[in-house]
Design a protein that fits this description.
Length: 181
Amino acid sequence: MKKLLLGILCALSLSMLNVKAAEETPKEKINVYVFTKDGCPYCEKAKIFLNSITDEYGKYFNLVVYEVYDAEWNANENLKNAMDTVAKEFGDKVNGVPYIVIGDEASWPGYQSAFDDDIKKAIKKAYENEDYKDIVAPLINSSIGEKKDEHSNDTIITVVILAVLVGGIGSLVYFSRKKQK
């Protein structure tokens, strides 16, 4: 019986370690999307600006650039359609590129340096928002037919730990019964 209680205490300790590990996991970066066209000078300026703020803001975001018009694999204009779908979702009228999107509440059809401070604020706001929602990824994935892996590492780790705990408890019960006989 003592071994069974010891096993249960060990299992509880391990589950507490899992909770602590989850608390210490750094927050996932948000995505900043830029729809571009090769040779577009405003697109280049937008990408240069976003790359220039990575020292200060890089811990908050991943830069995701989609070539809308000139990509060879994009012959059927799936990304152009996806950009239009995203713009429609935001209520934006997009007549060209660049088109910059952050989270579910900030977008810029076009780019000029006057947007820089607003873009930085939107990046930080989206990162700090507990209810952050990336509306672009699902729209892109459905437009170009990619499927995103729906299992996060946290889920896999939790399942493995639970399996070990259940197996450990089962073993303790088995061996404690065997000794009692």
